[in-house]
Amino acid sequence: PGPPHLRDNIEIKRYMSFAILALLPSVIACIVYYGAYVIAILLVSYVVGGIIEVLFAVLRKKEIEEGFLVTGLIFPLVLPPTVPLWVVAVGVAFGVFFGKEVFGGTGRNIFNPALVGRLFITIAFPSIMSSTWQAPFTDTITSATPLSIFKTAGELTPYSDLLLGLTPGSMGELFRIGIIAGGIFLMFSKVSNWRIPLSYIASVFVFALLGNFAFPGKIAPPVFQLLTGGLLFGAMFMATDPVTSPFTRAGKYIFGIMCGLLTVIIRAFSGYTEGVMFSIILMNALTPLIDHFVLSAKYKPA
């Protein structure tokens, strides 16, 4: 059995409804930035993912789980705004099936299902997922995001543009003021644990500060790192997923710090411009091990 702390149905329901509320500013911003096509992407995500959920509920003779309401919303938010609807369908189907159902459904999955779907389509359709960015309120399609511009030209995008989301990027990561507000709302309502997002964000800041000092051309300065790509969205809404992150207190700090370190390293030294998705998935895989070591250190026989 998975971690017992999520077996409680009321807890799951509360988590789902609060998470959806916290994501609303990002969803509304996407629709304002990119128009009706965003609604089509959201609908495809919910319909395709929902069908798979229902099929498995019938096969397992269980109730349909609310868990999908959050996955079905987070998944579209980590996609480019111009993504073809068939890619949305393939990604959400892959994420729900391989990211969750094969492990036994909500509460038993090791990886964040939205990230599993996003990772699959990033690898399967690299050109669609890396060269079809669009800046809000424009029709221009570009392959340049603030992270890729820094990587190729060493230029920094103005911080005010980054905060307001006036740059190309995945739909949900852009309106960063809304993401911060949603994240704080989740922490104050005790739905997400503050230890993971704060240790993730703080470690990116520290490692970027040291890294920018050591490799100024490779590692971007700390504030730029925090305000670009999916960092805030990932730290607030994906790393904090209670099913796929550690349940021990020390484990949460280790998880967040390692996510931060991996994000900075992948952004600077890999072929990808963004490291958030990879770092959270890698740390999801290490979560049982982290909890195991924390608990065995805590309850070591004298």
How would you explain this protein's 3D organization?
- The chain is an all-alpha fold and 302 residues long.
- It has one domain (4-296): Ammonium transporter fold (Orthogonal Bundle).
- The chain contains 14 helices and 2 strands; from the N terminus they run ααααααββαααααααα.
- The chain has a two-stranded antiparallel ribbon.
- Helix 2 packs parallel to helix 4 (85-99) and helix 13 (249-269) runs antiparallel to helix 14 (276-298).
What's a concise summary of this model?
This protein has 302 residues and is mostly helical. Helix content is 66%, strand content 1%. It has helices at residues 9-34, 37-60, 67-77, 85-99, 113-124, 126-130, 146-153, 159-164, 176-188, 195-214, 222-227, 231-238, 249-269, 276-298; strands spanning 133-134, 141-142.
Task: Give the biggest beta sheet.
Answer: 2 strands, antiparallel
Mean pLDDT: 91
Please tell me what the overall shape is. Answer: globular
SS elements, strand count: 2
Provide keyphrases for this structure.
single chain, 302 residues, mainly alpha, Ammonium transporter fold, two-stranded antiparallel ribbon, 14 helices, 2 strands, 66% helix, globular
Q: Could you outline the blueprint of secondary structure elements for this entry?
A:
Blueprint: H1 9-34, H2 37-60, H3 67-77, H4 85-99, H5 113-124, H6 126-130, E1 133-134, E2 141-142, H7 146-153, H8 159-164, H9 176-188, H10 195-214, H11 222-227, H12 231-238, H13 249-269, H14 276-298
Antiparallel strand pairs: 1-2
